[in-house]
Records
---
Amino acid sequence: MKTIFLTASFLITAIFAIGAFIQGFDGPITKGQNLPGVAKSSETPIQTVKDTRDLSKYGLVRIDEVQNLTGSELEKRQRIGHRYDKQEWVYKTINNPATAGVGRIRDLPVPAETPFAESSLVIVGEVIKATAYLSNDKEGVYTELTIRIDESIKDTDSVNTEQVTIDRGGGVVVYPSGQRVLYESSEEALPTVGSQYLFFLRRVDTNSNYEIVASYEFRGTKVIPMESGRSMEDFAKVDRRSFLNTVRQRLRQNLIKETQQDD
């Protein structure tokens, strides 16, 4: 699988994922000027960049952060972090003060529109907390998200709880200078705090977070796919209510087929 990394600076608006973009930089890059009768300075001009982005809806982690964990908490963090090792994504240092974000393209397969077979838990919920972590080797970054469940459409795991924890690659990495860099895949957008989604989830084992198979963001009545590869035109005329009704109907159809096969 070939991975392509993309960087964006404060000088341009860069689109990293479906419906997500980086903006809000109003500080100028100062440059030396040759004025009449004034000798050109030999000193290197100082660059000043003002980052005015509101990144509070994302999880943040410091590149030099040290976690003092022991026992089961340490084991859990190492187990989850291992999935994001060897990605060669996160820069240890950022030389360009204008770098706003780093994206990547991995040529991932497009998930089914309603992947019930691959999902043990299908829910509608709101992200109420986001915490970013570096992988064990610090080459990757992921965000752990706490979801408040508003509706459970499918629950093979018998979760029976009001909240569930999931994770996805990406997050904001803060460097010693205070520079904040948003790492986000162009193929898998990061859910953000305060937004509502439909999640198709799976879990490898009971000691891990849920992984996202497919997801959709609800913006008012609009439905926005969080994974790339689908035509936005297909969802332009679909509203939240009709889409959820279609999802529930497809689940019922799948259950009927499974029952008939068992017979």
---
Amino acid sequence: MGFLAPILLVLILWSFYWKTRALWRAAKNGDKAWFVVLILVQSLGLLDILYLYVFGKKSE
């Protein structure tokens, strides 16, 4: 189990980074539906990355 701890930590940090970034942009853009979906769906950051680069246009 000891060798899994670093891998698990990396996955948690990876997911946290993308989740935070996507939620921040969804809130900033006023995308309430995306915000709720991103909160409810845990996907190792895949849905978050999809939102950031495909659906979530940068607001200036």
---
Amino acid sequence: MLKNAPQQYKVALYVRKSSESEERQILSIDSQISHLRELAEQKGFLIKEIIEDAASAYKASNRPGFDLLMQRINQQQIDIILCWKGDRLARNMTEGGKIMDLLQEGKIKGILTPYQHYYPEDNILPLAIELGMAKQYSNDLSKNIKRGNKTKIDRGGFCHRPPCGYLNNRFEKTIIKDPDRFKVVKKIFQLMLTKQYSMPQICTIANEQWGFKTRQTKRMGGNPLKVSTLHKILTNPFYYGLVRNGNHQKIGNHTPMISQGEFYKIKDILKSQGAQKPNEKMFFAYTNLFRCQECNCSITAEEKIKYNCPKCKKKQGAKNPKQCTCGFQITKKIIQKGRHYTYYRCTKKKKLANGRKCSQPCIRKEILEEQILHHLSSINLHTEFIEFAKKALDLFTAQENKQKGLKQKKNQQKQGLIEKQLINAMKMRMADEISAEQFLSLKIELEKEKRFIQKNKIQSKDWKKEAKQSLEQVQNIRKRFLNLSPKEKKTLLNKLGSNPTLFNQKLLPDWKKHYSIFSSLQEAKTYRLESPLSQSISDLNQCEKEHHISWWSKLDEVRTFLSTEKQE
């Protein structure tokens, strides 16, 4: 039961519908809100926020509205949730368990539906049963749908929206020819089989000569034919009669547009033309990593290919097979044997204040990598210093743990005193020694002080682990960088710094602060130890601190920065 006046609670309405069409919903969003407003009015609640979702709750982390609700609860901005049913909140055990934990911890003061109320002090079993039933319903529904789809495929039916050139017959539940597009798409296949047209040429003929438009639906369609769409058409086995759903496939009942032999001939033609799927792009290691210092646009990359025609020796730069002016057919193999160059340049998407475009030139990949290696050398640390630093960090840890223990003891004493004051205030209120207003004011003040102590409670920060990882990260970094894949290079550079820029073909790195400290240590060139590393930590503190003042000062800078960053 609720202990305070209804107006004192921060109430949120949570409403959700799945991604299905509107007519298939049990209750629409507006209808849910209307019913929940009536419930709030009956209970005397003031609604602070209405959170909506239009997504399935079957999978976790699929609903931005639910994530926002959890954030509000953890920040103590919401006390009570009003929803239509428990299955509106969760249909998976991950999020269901999260809700039950928050309710039992008292962070949620209540979950109210028009038919059932759940409070922290109540038995959790009814809520667990309701959320468990919602999860089981979803599981059963998924199995039934998969079984139905398999049966439909076995009978030659189709479970998805038919591709271009076909329509759904909603009355007979079959696939029929699209009277406006079937013949046009068939002509596209015939053009491809002649081997005389490339995909861009076929798109131009279909759009300009035949007036082709994709089928208009409520949310999409009505567009001219694009190369990406054409590629999907030419590589879809549905057109020779095959229907698929997951691992199940069978020859369907619909009228095929081409034969199976013609389909595989077209696949061979596409291979000979060097056609790739539109989403199969080359990975560039340094794109979306640097910015142009002049206009602040992103740095992009492009590949250039240079080769000569084997017959006339004319220089060529086309990336796809074509016919040279001398009549010789340039094949994919000839292109692949050419010289490949990668250039990085500013996208130049923004205009400068005076209206002119960015003037920055492009830079070759090899030159850029030379500069990256040069800057990585500036933060490279030798094994000697890293071993010394790890021992020093252990010393820092011991000192910090001692101070942390003293602070935690003081905080526990303060919390105990506040608890006693709260109990005394409740006794005084029960004895009518203070009024309800005085008690409420005192309670609010004490709870505020208690929350402040908990908020500033010394937590186990992991800055030491991050410091050791940072040391290992820069150990022989130049050598390791040369052996990384392009994706690993990008990941590493993202870890080391943020907002590096390019200006006049010069890389200007912006290392994270603790890596910049390493850079200044590298400049000091003090890499020779004067005492053995086998000493104890106490010896390290007494002896090596005297001999390596610069080393200790730099480590202290790293410690201060990382520990402060974690607190923030």
---
Amino acid sequence: MSESFEAKPTSVDGATVLSTFKAALRGMASSVCVITTCDEAGRPHGMAASAVVSVSFDPPSMLISVNESASISERLKSKRAFCINVLTSKHGPIVEAFSNSAMHEHRFASTDWAQGVRGLPYLRTAQASIFCEEDGSLTYGTHTVFIGRVFEVALGDTTGPYVWHNGTRVEIQPAA
């Protein structure tokens, strides 16, 4: 089930709201993940993302938000399945590759990548790889929100998470 809603314009100064909204979001620490899928020929595709959240435990489900201009957007719509690879603090080079379109050809060059269920690429060194089948989507404004029903989870490296805060990577330390 896919739906589309028109984002209604705001009655306040859009540029001011957008600027302060972005500043507010930079203050929200987020785990960084790589969302992966494959095309009809089995070629892998992916993007770095921090707009990832659990939705429900029953059924187990996840939500990802993807900009319509992202190269992976149409592939997610046609495949209707994706893998959320939760990154560790060791994955700096992977974040760089999946955040820079000029590095597209190098994204899956590492031997840390494998082919999983339904041909979905997953990162063997991830904290977790969460395999999802699309259970619905909603296009709103510049993004499409995909709801994925979890059908498999692979747990891996327990190293600290890759966390993004205020435009940079930060280390998480246990509270004393």
